[in-house]
Each structure stands twice: as structure tokens, then as C-alpha cells.
């Protein structure tokens, strides 16, 4: 179990959010972070719809669901204008941040600071700001439900 | 929220169990009860495999998963000899009790005492013996994971 | 490509049929034969519903769909009384024959005469009585549609 | 049954093709046309993978499978640079043409000439150049297999 505080998000643009979100401001609430790319098949078929379902299922709790568009390949193909159409067509309603592009690297800033291996990646952050779960690839629905309920019951 | 203690199980025969199980003896542990019929299509396609996955996922917790064969129709078709083959073929490993047949009614005893409306039915019982969830029909995996984690964290 | 005539069915009892069916009487029409066991998980989840869909989809053609209950294990668990409940619960409407039990062998007669390796098995018979396809295990829907259309266009 | 010849394709750019394809040059062969948009959820989850499977399944026949990127909304989001990444990520190997953008209308040229209602649309063209099937929305795998086999057997 890690006791390090999860790195702050670095986001260049927000969708579905009235104002920028920060982990610092969310301290005290659990955060479900879904890192994805709009052209990653495993994200589109599984991870992103799963995240939307978690957003809907736990809407009456203080869980904060956040999408993070971590583009690390095909950058020209997945610009914000394309992401916005993707979000519209897939009826995504949770806040989504565009991970800040890296300098001298195809890997965006937040993706690098978390050491993510690819997309989709699910990161679940405790109320105290530490990482409870960091999972790469398809996550099981039942396990996701259990993990979220667990961090919600932590004080 | 009900505060009544869940009715005791009435079981005529156990599979996958070294000895009979009772809710009384399990007091202090949460119990996931899956009421099914081996020829109920919704049980076979969804409820029973989901219960097996819950059994596997929470094996390192003190959750007790129990199947209950609540035959209320086609009694001649779903006798214990058929149930045993079903359990073998579907590789079910959690304890399964045969609900005691009713007298002068097609509804078996435990099914009646819980007021179940049909199969599959999922009943989740708290450590203190009260019912946390009584759901008829298909249950969502994420919700099931969340409910189990919630009762596990109760003291 | 085999030119041998497919063996005649040996059936001890029919469901969903006003009178016994024979391949001899069906000569001139293509026949889709689905060999299954009611407690075979792959049959219940895939093969049997697929067969029902083929029966529905080609109802306006002269394809004859036939189910064959080829019990080769757990014989006591899958007697006709259980099969009838299974057929009712799963809303199967195509004719289903109970493969005649073998003597001195757990393998029923038709299953043996076709050299079937297990269940589910799909056998597609041409208008001229020869076997067009003999497939063990899960069959792809698109391929099944194509094979049926092919034998329907043969003269 | 229509006897009109299917309108010629109007394509501004081809992917997965050594040279432009035309229906005129393909006369004598059946053609499966899959009209899609890369950000249409029903295309991504069902229609496009189904088309790839048809391409693979009938590769030893003279069926020609063609994708047509019929962008009629979110034009800025689905430019060819994005389509190319989509094709790469989803491992699509059949030829795909970009439907020529319309003048004074969001509807591209081929989409309009066929009177398509949206995406996905599947159009199956006979050897003689007439339309055998024009289907909007999700197409059933078994029916698709049957239709393709039927047009393949036509002379």
C-alpha cells in the first residue's frame, strides 16, 4: 500500500465541466480517474462505457468520476475537436480533461507522472489523496463496484 | 431499511457442503443467497454464473455465498439428480441447498418465507442477520460488487 | 466432399412434432440437425438459441430444422420429463427427437452412427441427403447463415 | 425488387486500396458496401467489425467488400487523418473510400445518391449491378451470411 499522494492532474482543456477540477480541491472525496484515447478500441468498447456507468451508479455519493484524454499516439487524429464529437456521440456526461501534451515526448504530462502503461487505465484515489488501485486494461465490473464502495466507506 | 432477522433456511439436501449451513451459525458474516432453478433461462445465462464469480472474487473475505435451488415449477424435471449434473457441468463450487418442498403448494419453504417473486432472486444478508438487498431478476455486476463490499465493511 | 447418404435418425420420442420425422421422408429438402444435451453449457448458451434463430429466420424456405437430444452422460439427469421442461422454458419450437439410448454404451444410436465427438454438433444435410457440414462446438452465425443459404440454392 | 443499377461510388480518397474501385469495374462480382462514420457508436460496436468479419470469411470468393466513410455530421472531427488512425487501431483491412463531401449540404455525394438514412447502412449489390439489400442500422450476422451466399450463387 502506497502512502504517496497521487500526482496532480495537468489538463489543457476541460469538457463537461463548468470549471477546472483539481485533485487538491477534491481532497476528502474519492476520485475515479479513467485515462483513455478516443480511438483506443478497448476504451471505446469497454472502459469508457464502464466509467459512464460508474458515474451514473454512484451519482448520489461523493465519488468524483473524471475522464482523462491521454493521447500518446495518432495525435493529429484525436484533437479536441474530434474528442468533443466523440463525447457527444457516446453521450458521456462526466467531466473529461485533455491531458497536457508532453514536450519532446509523445506521452502527455499526467500520463507520464502516473507512469501509466497505456489505455485504458483506471486509477482510483482515496479520500486522503493516495492511490487505491491502478489498473491497466479491462477492469471487471464487479471488482470496480467493490473497490468504489470500499473507498467510499473509508473516512 | 428492515430490522427483521432474515428467515432461517429450510434445506432438504446440500451440495458442495461438508455439513449443513444455517444463517444462525453464520451470524457475524455477510451472506449472499442466490435463489435459482436449474431450468430458469435467466438463472443459467446470468444469475448463476454471476454468483460463481462473486464466490471467486470474495473468497478471501468472510462473505459466505450460498445457492438455493427453489423449485416452484416443473418439479419432476429438476430433481436433485438433475441438479447435481447441472452443478457438475457448470463447474459451480459454492454450497447449494435444495429448498424444502412445500406441503400443499408448489412453492418451497424458504422461497415462501422470504416472499420471493420468482427466480433468479439475490438476497444479501448483513453480519447482523438483517436483509440488505432483495432483488428479483437480473442484477448489475457493478452494483453487486458495491453491495457486497458495503456489507463487508459493516461491523 | 462426401457422397455418402447421411445415416437415418433413430429417435425414441419426439417433441414439437405431430408425427415422427425421417431423413428419408425429407429427401429433397435441406435439413439442419442440432445435436445437444440440455445440461451442456455450450449448447444452452449458444448452440440451441442459434438453432432456434435459424428455425425462425428460414421459416419461409423449405429448410427443416431438427433438434436431437443426444444424451451421452448424466443420463438420469436428462430424461424426457426434464427435456420437456427445458424446451418449454427456453421456448424452443422446432421438432426435437430424443436420440435412442445405446445398448451397452452410453452413446445414443444416432450420435454413434454420425461419429459425433460431443455436443453441440451441427450437421447440415443437402437436398440429396449427403452431409454438407459436420461441425463440433460453437458455430459462427455468419457462417451458418451462408451454409444454409448455399444448400437452399442447390437443386 | 428493383432493377435499377446501383449508383456509382463518388470517393475523394481511398484507404487500403492500391487503386480506386468503381462499381462499373466490379460488375460481374457481388459487392458488400458498408457505409459508416468512425464516431458513430453503432458502427464501431457492430457494423464495422461485422464488415471485417465478412471480408475475412468470404475472402476466397469473388465478393468485394468496400467501406464508405459517409460523414454527414461532425465533419471537422472525422477528417481523413482521423479515419486513418481509426482504420489502423481497429485493424480494418478492406478497402475504404471517403465519400465525396457534398456541396451546400452536409450529406456526402454517394450517401445522397443512395438515399441512405444514416449510419451504419449495409448495401449488398448483385453481380448484375442491382441492389439486393439496403439495410439501415444493426444487421443480423446470420442474415448477412445468408444474403451474401445468395448473391454469390447468382449468375
Tell me about this structure.
- Four copies of one chain form a homotetramer.
- With 155 residues, chain A is an alpha/beta fold.
- Chain A has a single domain (28-153), classed as Glutaredoxin, CATH 3.40.30.10.
- Chain A contains five helices and six strands; from the N terminus they run βαβαβαβαββα.
- The first copy, chain A, has a six-stranded mixed beta sheet.
- In chain A, α2 (41-57) links the parallel β2 and β3 (64-69).
- The radius of gyration of chain A is 14 Å and the shape is globular.
- The relative contact order of chain A is 0.25.
- The model of chain A has no long low-confidence stretch (mean pLDDT 97).
- Chains C and D meet through α2 and α5 of C and α2 and α5 of D.
In brief, what are we looking at here?
4 copies of one chain form a homotetramer. Chain A is α/β, with parallel strands linked by helices.
Question: Top keywords for this entry?
Answer:
homotetramer, 155 residues, alpha/beta, Glutaredoxin, six-stranded mixed β-sheet, 5 helices, 6 strands, 32% helix, 21% strand, globular, antioxidant activity (chains A, B, C, D)
Amino acid at each position: 500500500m502506497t502512502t504517496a499522494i497521487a500526482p496532480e492532474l495537468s489538463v489543457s482543456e476541460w469538457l463537461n465541466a463548468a470549471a477546472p477540477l483539481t485533485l487538491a480541491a477534491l481532497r476528502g472525496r474519492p476520485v475515479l480517474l479513467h485515462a483513455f484515447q478516443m480511438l483506443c478500441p478497448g476504451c471505446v468498447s469497454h472502459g469508457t462505457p464502464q466509467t459512464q456507468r460508474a458515474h451514473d451508479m454512484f451519482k448520489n455519493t461523493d465519488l468524483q468520476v473524471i475522464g482523462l484524454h491521454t493521447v500518446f499516439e495518432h495525435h493529429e487524429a484525436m484533437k479536441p475537436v474530434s474528442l468533443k464529437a466523440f463525447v457527444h456521440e457516446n453521450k458521456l456526461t462526466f467531466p473529461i480533461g485533455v491531458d497536457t501534451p508532453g514536450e519532446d515526448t509523445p506521452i502527455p504530462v499526467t500520463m507520464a507522472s502516473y507512469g501509466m502503461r497505456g489505455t485504458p487505465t483506471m486509477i482510483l484515489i482515496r479520500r486522503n489523496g493516495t492511490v487505491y488501485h491502478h489498473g491497466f486494461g479491462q477492469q471487471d465490473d464487479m471488482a470496480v463496484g467493490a473497490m468504489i464502495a470500499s473507498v467510499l466507506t473509508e473516512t
